[in-house]
Every structure is written in structure tokens, then in C-alpha cells.
Amino acid sequence: MRGDADAMTTTQPRRSRRTEILENRPVNLDGFVEEWPEKGLVAMDSDYDPAPSVRVENGRIVELDGTTRDQFDFMDTFIADHAIDVASAERANAIPSEEIARMLIDTHVSRNEVLAVTRGLTPAKILDVVELMNVVEIMQGMQKMRARRTPANQGHSTSARDNPIQVAADAAEGAMRGFAELETTLGVVRYAPLVAIALQVGAQVGRGGVLTQCALEEATELELGMRGITAYAETISVYGTEPVFVDGDDTPWSKAFLASAYASRGIKMRFTSGTGSEVQMGNAEGKSMLYLEIRCILMAKGAGVQGLQNGSISCIGVPGAVPGGIRAVAAENLVASMVDLECASGNDQSFSHSAMRRTARLMPQLLPGTDFVCSGYSGVPNADNMFAGSNFDTEDYDDWNTIQRDLQVDGGLRHVREAEILQVRNKAARALQALFSHLDLPPITDEEVEAATYADSSNDYPLRDVLADLKGAQAVMDRGITGLDLVRGLEATGFHDVAENLLAVLRQRVSGDLLQTSAVLTAELTPLSAINDPNDYQGPGTGYRLQGERWEQLKKLRHVTSATDPETEVG
Amino acid sequence: MGTPTTSPAPERTVRLRELGPARRGSRPDEVVIAVSPAFADFFTKTIVDVPHAEVLRQLLAGIEEQGVTARIVRVRDTADLAAIAHTAAQLSGSGIAVGVLARGTTMIHQKDLPRLSNLELFPQSPLLDAQVFRRIGSNAAQYAKGESPEPVPTRNDQMARPRWQAKAALLHLKEVECIEAGRDPVEVEPAFELSRAG
Amino acid sequence: MSLSPTIELRTEDYPLSVNRPDLLATPTGKPITALTMEAVVSGELSPDDLRIAPETLLLQAQLAEAAGRPQLAANFRRAAEMTAIPDAEVLAMYNALRPRKSSGPQLAELADRLENAYSAPECAALVREAAEVYARRNLLARPPAADHSATDA
Amino acid sequence: MPDRARLVVGVDIGNSTTEACLAAVAPDRTVSYLGTDLTRTTGVKGTPDNTDGVLTAVRGALRRAGRAAAELDAVLLNEATPVISGLAMETITETIITESTMIGHNPATPGGQGLGVGTTVSLTELDEIDPGPPVVCVVPHGWDFEDIASTVNAAVGRGVDVVAAVLAGDDAVLVANRLTRPVPVVDEVAAVEKVPLGMLAAVEVAAAGYTIRTLSNTYGLATVFGLDPDQTRHVSPVARALTGNRSAVVVRTPSGDVTDRRIPVGTLELRGSGKTLRVDLATGAEEIMDAVARAQPLEDAHGEPGTHVGGMLAQVRDTMADVVGQDGEEAGSPVEIAINDVLAVDTFVPAEVRGGLAGEMHLENAVALAAMVSTSRSRMRSVAERVAEELGVATLIGGVEGKMAVRGALTTPGVDRPVAVLDLGGGSTDAAELDREGRDTAVHVAGAGELVTKLIDSELALDDREVAENIKRSPLAKVESFFHVRHEDGTVQFFDEPLPSHVFARVVTLAPEGPTPIPTRHGLDHVRQIRREAKRRVFVVNAVRALRQVAAGGNLRTLDFVVLLGGSALDFEIPEMIADALAGYGIVCGTGNVLGTEGPRNAVASGLVAAHAAAAP
Fold it and tell me: Which stretches make up the Diol/glycerol dehydratase large subunit domain (chain A) (predicted)?
């Protein structure tokens, strides 16, 4: 009873002052667990992963990593029949793993020469190769194996209130800061059409050619894409064991079919997977997280999808808590790249309480560069991030820019002066205001435009009439509004340049150029992919170099003291 | 706020004594609570150290406060929350059941619903405290009475992932180990005991 | 599909929208150069003009093949076949391929429909392959489960 | 006189839809209707943006009739009188409890039953007091129910006369079940620390399904506390406030009180028919509407600046300025907007009682105001010019909407002059009348569908306009299992497929898309009563009010036929509510069926054609 409470305050052993200080460091709010390899709670280097093997009979793989065809589960079957190059499989797998690992970092071996080997490798063999590599070697491998020569970044633009004006303004700012792709999702799913339109308009105001997507359940996501309101899709999840794949209500064949469905509508698409999802769902079948992720990567490759978003993604807390977990995450990004897939490399979910750990987790992707360093840097404050928070958000913009400048690496972003940002935010809000009015969607007031210009978070905006917005969103679907209507509306309301940008994006659906591996649209509205911008890194002085005009851009920060007149700042 | 909250009250422990095979209830005013294989067995507290004794006591209290009776069963052959809660709903005279896993994840189910559906789900085990369990019990009882309770507000915390995601996975794996395949659910009786905490 | 392109593309032809616009047309037969702002404003263009043509997908398949990506090329060839299938049916077919959604005969019927109604042999092959694996892995639709009335005394 | 039939199309630009009616007018002026069409209005009604919608509707009607645009002789547009309305609501009473004298919040599950009268003592001091006069135990936050019960039982065991308990948490049943001597227990008293200790208090709990008898009766209170007549007069508000509760606590303190206070909200100033009338808003809707009637026709209305009424009307004016100004060119400043009609409705708002200990809610009186302005009419000219240019056809602006509507309504089978129409819209209710001689009059009055939604929203404390709108539009049902619902009329409907889990055990609206749950603890009957009452107070009141303004001499008995038009004429119960109210005046009333096929739609477009034919040279 209550009287006993006093008796409870027994003397505690005296604690070190230093321990107390360390105890209070943010990193100690993170969770860490011991490995349990028998159950798959292990990042990589597990004794329970299969040993590599492959046997081909009559042009068909009949044994894969110690399992014979009659024992194949559907992942084995799909990978054996679609992902692995049968002609080279036995030869490639016979090469010692050390040799393949060294090829990955050997500057005398070209990317294509590596691909000639990796296309025949089995999952266990690939695992065996990357297990030989430390994190610096993984980065070296990534530097060479990334599909597109020029690295890029992807941003999130969402709103805790699903406010379309906020999404448009933050998309515009994000596009101007450098994101090549922008992604949104919803709190209230029915808001999707309005928010997807806002994202598209904002993106094209910020920088013509930025690609946008709205993460939803498959049918709606595909429909928005088919209508040309969004430009690509990404949240098509695949898993590394059969039971978890089936729990997700899909199979490799259904996903492969879906991949072709997207391509048939001219829409760029990538799959999503990541270490930790299988053990998280309790069905890792005793395999390491990295082994299962390699199966996902090869499944994606076999489906013929051009790319993959991986790097643990929403399960980052799992590899993040076990020894070597972040090395495994770096390795999974490398594996996606070394089997020639576009890699949007994670760094997109709240990962740690510790700023230092958050940054360290980024280095294996930022330093070598990937196709998209973050597959979702939060272009809104994390409180507004409807993907449950990212590893980096708007508060980190200046830190990010400084790190790029310190290390002379291109993470896809740049510092932009406030005046320019205010200008594009304002224009995005006005363009959306004009477009909504033209399409008879719920009005946007001048007060909202003003708020959007100067706002940080959703709290800085006047509240919307949610009911009217939801009716408007429904009207977009009912009236069959398409990307073409958006172009027409923007043109009619005097936003000619924005209309032209959007039309250019839509035109690319007809050309199919964005369907090729690692494709983005440049500021000149030209497709840039692994075909016309292939990664040609082969040692110092080759490949993508941060120099020239781009380096001058990245030298700019918010506060840099002028050398000519130290009493002023440049920039 | 005024009064101080109870400082570490004497901690209660619970043992679940098996009474025999779980049977289908006939009282329309009962809620069945179904616990997972490792609940109050291999494990004694949830992922955030809420003692299982307290979880059960609060669920029972929430049900009793509404004037509804409760029975407790243990499901042995699965650690899947939907399966546990759905099994219990089939045993419940009212058709309403509460399923709870050792780590604290909880669900209210109804017998006519498909297994993968539910009335209310509380997926974020780190955010469930004694008060939430009380409200879950209370809501389950209100469903049993045909009333329409306000759903218990679900909480969210973006930083739960870095802190708890891996531990939750570990606890789940442990719970799976405690599964006894092929064993039918058993009716259990809780025996609460006071003990000194710490 | 009898769309065997006579053009031999090389990776240098990419991007087609820049280097070979002459090869690109909409499914409605308009050249890609006709997709101008004037055409949008005058109402000449319909959403159908902004879809990709099967011929274009086959050209992109050639490029993917030339770039050493046979799986991507195969995906584009399936996609070329799918351009003829209405949106709603594409989604319905996708749903039919989900685990335990279709029986063996239903999948066989789906494959036949792809082959016969839409001249989509590659897609049909994918479905047949799925049917075989699903049968082996117990992922075909189960006979209707005992319904709830059984539990409802 | 032309020697061939002329092909004309009437077009009605409404707030949300644009409707067209194509007809051939023979030389003898007989009209043959050929086809209709309906499309979404483009832009704000009455602005040049409407042109696109007009063209779509005209082309649609032509296509349906198989005619070409080149054959058209004239397009007839309505003289749109954009009526814009605004809403505001203000609470005019508040209940205040002083000195924490009363707890009347009706927790869902009190414990025990009966009446206990004693001195309030904190549970923390229970083990220190000696046996003696009866005590009411007050339990602070943080106590576990088992500890409460054992503490009370221990005290009772020592001979302390614990007669009742008041708890902070939701533990009353749990505690009562564990007491050796049962007493009434009231729980969920959030601010339990404010309950005065050492005072005489009474706790009463009734059996389930019953309400308290003693504390809700003034003389019961007088008996319990031994009050003299003067003091008794003083406590009567307390008794009234507790009426209908299952449980209650009353503490007797030196000057504790419950007051029901009128909030000074200011006066409404109405200008019209050469006079200026002032009416205190707090007097309620009846007085206000009386004043409005005396100031007809109303020229403008103002609220005393600095008062709530001033704020309310300013708010209405601001909304309207926004809408009027939406087109950019016509940006109306709030001052220029003259209010032409006001509808006041008495309503209530569930509000938290000031000084309450347990978050007690009380239904406070409130007044809702709908106000309406008519705006500029000039811009239809430019719509007409554009339509004429696009189609190459003479485009004429026809008569006033209401007057056209009444002609369209005449095409409803079974209707004859004198006829009146009621157009039940979203912001305003419009009436027009056509007498035997062909003279017509038309009026607009403030208040329609949107006000109904607002009343439902606030009276059910939903704070969700979408839910309120659902309640307005669809009948209710209670989901009794996954396989059946009980409709509001008591009938039961069964389903083969289980209903979605989120509607289980809930009161739902049966919208066409499926059942939607209402987030409320109120029962179906209560929700239904509020819905019907809101519709009655707006639509029935406005129907009578508007018809009086168009009926000869304000006498409803001069009307024979009333035809209901507009979106709300499709409502599942409003038409019958209005018909019932008008039946007493010998009026035939029903929902229109324009041209015998269009239902309550297309009246204005058809009327334009009819009027044109009648006036043709």
C-alpha cells in the first residue's frame, strides 16, 4: 500500500558522474539486441545461411545453393528461372569469392566486366562475396557499380494535415534544392488526388523535370500514374521468404505482372525491399537478413524491374540493433547495384536518437554516391512526414550541405538563398491556387498562399475545409481529371513555364525513355539513365567527379565569410 | 495534477493455473481473454516492463467495471495475435474476445469477423500501459453489451522504431519458440500474488 | 504480336525522345512531335495520346537488350502486350495472380485469354508458369472454407 | 409570326449544376420538349467562367435530341441572382458551479446504489479518524481499486460509518464489488482534489435503468441538508441540473451555488420598411424572427460592434465577401454587403460546465443565424456574349430564376395555377408564385441545407461537418451484429456478407456507399430526433415564411399547389415534413416532376423555354 512506498527508496549503489552523463546521451535511447542466428536475427556472417552451389542440366538450373529443384520454394524457382544467367552460372559460381570481391574494388576491372560475372551468381554466392568486404570496400564497390554515373537524391513532401498547399510549396523548395524525385503519401487516403496534383505542380515549379509519386495501395497508385498525375511508383514491396511474401498477399509472379503493367502505361517503377522485414515478421527461416535481402534483389532483377529501393527501409530498427547491421545495409545497396539495378538506397526512415549515428549510417551511401542517396529525405519537418519520419529532414538541410562541401561529395542537394526559396514557394502556391480555381476544386485563399511562402510546418497554415477538400478530391477521380487537364489549366492561368515542364514529363511516357535503368529527367528535360550516363568509374580521376560549375554551387553555404571583404559574407 | 501518482506499488505477479480444455461459453455477457504461449510463463512482463499480472488485472478490471464477466484461456499452438484473438472469439459467449501477446500487442476480435480483421488493434506494444489495458478491457465489455464504445485512441511515436523494433522482433521469436503445436486452448485461472519489486 | 521492328537500335540512340523522335508515335498514331502545348490547348489531344505505344516498348526492349539487360527487355515485351488490355482488367488479372486467389483452371483460363484475346503470349507464359509453381507450393485457391454459419449455433 | 417551329434551348446556371432544356416552339406557341442535359457549373455562378458549362449542357441536349447547333434559333439564359449565404452561431447561456458544490456528470458505470449522506473525508485520512458520524470517502488520483476497497473495508471494520465514496478513476463498480458493506460510489470525477473536505455531502446512485430521485428533487435536497425555505429556493437550480442523472454528488458549502447565466451577446439591428428595429439576441429566435417580419423587406442588418452579435454578422459578411470576391474583379468589401434576410434558429450546444469537477456537460442555449445577400446581376451579359459567339446563335437573358422555376414546375403532371414553388437549396430557400392571371413574385430567404448540417453538427457535438452531412442525408440504423442492422423505423435487414468491422455495434448512416459509423455515444433515437428537428426548424419554418411572402396578402390559403424543387427536394424526409406542415392550409404539396420526367430538376431551364414561348412575338 501507499505507506510502503517510502520503504522502497532503499539506498542505491553510488553511480559514476560520467556514467550518468553517458546514460543521458541520445544514443542510449536506441535499442540494441544480441544476435540469434538460428532464428535469423543476425545481419550477415551467419553459420545458418546456405553454402553456394549451382548445377545446370539441359539449360535449366536444377540445384541452387544446396537445394535441388524438387525442393525449391517459389523464391528459388523464380530466381533460378528468371534472375540468374544460366549460360554463365556454373562458370561464374566457380570463380573464388575472393576474386569476385576483389574485382568489385579493382580499378582495372570495369563495371561491365564485373556484371559479366555477377549475372550468373546465386544468392549464397553473392552473400559469400560481400561478406568478404569491409565497409570501406563496400563503398568502393558501390562507387564503381552504381548504375548511373551522376548521383541523385529523392525527397518526401507530405503534410500532417494532408494540406495540398503545403505539399506544393515544400515540393517546389525541395525540387529547387535538388531532389530529382519527390514522393508523397497521405494521412487521410481520400485526400490523395489533391495532394498528388499539388506535388506534381510544386515539383514542376521548383525545377522542371522532377519526377513525382504518391505512395498508396496498388490500384489507386496505378490509377494516378495512368492518369499522368504522378510520374513513377516505388512502394511495390517484395520479401525474401515464401511465407512472408504470401503474407504480403503477393508472389514473385504477381509482382512481375504488376511491373509489366506499370511499364505498359509508360510509368517508371521500382520495387522495395530491405533487410530485417522477414525476421520482423517472424519468418526468416533461420537465414540472415542479408541473405534474404539478396533473394529479394535477385527476384526484382528476374522480374525485369529496372530498380529497387532498399537499405532496410521501414525495418531499419532491426539491422540497426544487431552487430554489423549497418554494414549489411550498405552491402544490400551494393548488391542491388552489382546486379545492375537502379538503387534508391534508404536513409529514409527515423533511424536513431543520436545525430552522430544518423550521420554515420548515411556515409556508405553518401560517400560513394548512389542512384538516389536517400529514398526519401524529408523535405518537410519530420512531424509532417507521413512516412513516419525520415533519417534527415528540413532541419538538416544546412548540415547536409556543409558535409557535401567539407568532403567534396555530391549528395544531390545544394544551398539556395532564401529569396529564391520564397519566390518558388510563393509561385507553387499561386500556381496551385490558379489551377484549383480553374478546375473548380476547393479554393485556395491568398492568406494560404502567403502562409505557404513563409511556412515551416503544417501548423503555419490556415486550416482547410477538409470536407470540401475531400469532395474535391473525389471530384478529381469522378471527373476523370488527367495530367493533360493540369497542363491545360496551368497554361490557361498564365503558368506557361510550369505547364511546359509538366507536358515534358507527360511526353516522356510516350517515349518510354524513363523506363530504362536509373532514369531521371535533367533540368533541360532530357532523360538521363544508365544508358546515356553509364557509370564509368575506374579509379582516381574517372567516373563522376564533383567539379566545375556543380562544385561551385556546392561551395555555397548560408554563412561563408568573404575572402575579398572579410566584413561581409558571400553567397 | 495535485496528488502524486502511486510510487512503485507492491508488484503483483500472476500464475496461470490450467483448468482443462477451453470450452465454448454460453453466457452472452462474457468476454474471453486469450493469452499467448509465453504470456505469464516464459515472459513475465511486456516489452516496456508492464508486468503481465498488471496487464491481466487491468483487462479484467475494465471488463468487470462494465458489469461483464470474463474468462481467460491460453492458446498454445500459435503466436499469431489474430489467430489467438479469433480462436478466443469463437469460445466467447458474447463473441467478443481480447487477445494479448507476451510483448503486449493486443487485439479485440469478434467471432463473425474474418480472422485477419479485428474490432480494435493495438499494434504498438511499447505504447501500451496499464491504463490502456484497462480501456481495452472496458471497450471489449462494451462491445459484448452491444454498446458502441469510443475506440481507444491509438498512439504513435516515430522514434519507437529505433528503440523497440528489434526488441519486438526478438520477443516475437522467443514467443514462437514457446509454441506447442497441436495443443488445443486451455482454460486458465489467474492466481495473483503480491511481491516486492526490484 | 507481329510487331517485329525492322529498325536496329543501338545504345547511342538513347534517349529516343531526343535522338530518334522519328520512331516515336502515340497509340493514336500521332508523332511524338505533335504533343505540343498548342495541341493541348486546342483540345486536339486526349489522354489516350499520352499513352505509350506497344511499338515503342519494343524499341525500348531492344535498347535494354543492347545495354545487356535481358530481364528488363523481357519486361518491356510483356508490357507491349499489355498495352491492349484495359486498365481495370490489368488490375483484375494482377489480383487473380495473388496467392490463393485463383484455382488452376482459372489461371489456365487467364493464360488462354491473354494469348487469344490479347495476343499476349509472353504474359500468358508467365501466368502458366505461376500456375505450375502455385500448384506445387499449395498457393492455388482453396475450396471455399467452412463458412461462419457452422460456428453460429 | 414565324411560319416554322423555332428551336430554342433554355439554360439554368445553378450554384453546382448547369441544366439545359431543348424545345421546339411552334408558330402557335405550343412547346414540344426535345431533350435535357445536366452538367457541372464551371466557375462561380454568374461569372464568365460559366460559359464552358453552358456550352457543354447545350451540346449535350442537342446531342440527345439528335439536333445540330446550327439549327438553334435562340439560347435562353436565366438571370442568375447569385444568392450567397453565411452562417454563425453564438451561445447565449452558461452554467457555472461555484465552490465545487455539485457533481452531476453521469458516469457510465457508477457503483452500488442508494443514498449516502455524510462528511467528506479524504481516503488518505480514513485510517486516522475515529468512529462517529457518517463519512463520504473522497479518493484522490492514483489509487488502485483493490487498495481503495481494502482501506475502506478496514475503516468500516473499525466502526467508521462510511456511507458513500467519490472516486477520481473509472473504478466505481470495481470498488463497490469489493466492499464488505455496499454503499453508493460515484467515479470519474476528474478534479476530485477540488471536492471540499469536511463538508456535508450527499451521494446518490440509482439502479441501472433508473434515475436519481432525492438529489434531483428540491425538497429532497432540503430534507437531506435540513434547509429553510430561503435556502431551499437557492438550491433549486442544483436539483434541476441533476434531473435525469443516474448518479450525483451534492456538497453543502457556505455559499456554493449553481447558476444559469445569460451571456450578454448584444443586439441585432434590423433596417427595413423605413424603420430600424433592435432586438436582443439573447431573447431567442422567436423574438428575432418577429422583428425580422416587422422589418420586411429587410434592407440590411448589423450587430452592435464589440458584442458577440457584431462578431457574428461580421463573420457572415466576411465569408460572403470572400465568395463574392473570389472572381477577383468583384472583390466585395465586407462593408458594402447588405444583408437581405436573416433566419434565427434556437439551438443548443453541449458545453463544459464552468467550475465542474468531472467535466460535466450542459446543454447551453444558443442562437444560430443564417444571413443572405443578393449580389450583382450584371455579369450574365458577358456569359451571354460568349455563348452567342461560340455557338453563333442569339443568346437572350430571360427572367428571374424563381419566376422561371415556377413555369417549369407547371410542367409537373397534375399541377395548375395558382402554383408556388419552393426551391430548397444549400444556402437559401427560394419561393415563387404564379397566380391565375399570370402575375408572378419571387423571394429568397436565408437558411437551408447548410444550416441544417451546422445544427446537427453542434447539437451532437460532432465537430465534423462530413459526419453531420451524412446524418442529414441518410436514414440511420444500428448495427446489431455483423449480419444485421436495425433501421430507424424498427425493421431489421440481414446481410449475407459480414459488415465491415468498423461499424460493429455502432449507430450508422445508411448512405448509398454503405454504412458509415457516427462517432457518438448517443443512441439512434436521439440522433434521429436532432436530425428531424433541425430540418423542421430550417425547412418547415422557411417554407412557411417564404410562401407567406409570395402568397397574396400573405395568406397561405390562397395557394393551391406547392411544388418542391432543388437538391433538398430529393431528401428522404424533408418533402413529407413540409407537406405535413402545409396540409393544414389546404395546400397540395409534393416534389416536382418537371416535364413529367426530370424530377425536381430542370425547372428553370424548362421555365425559360415556356416563358419565351409565351412572350414570343
Answer: 15-564
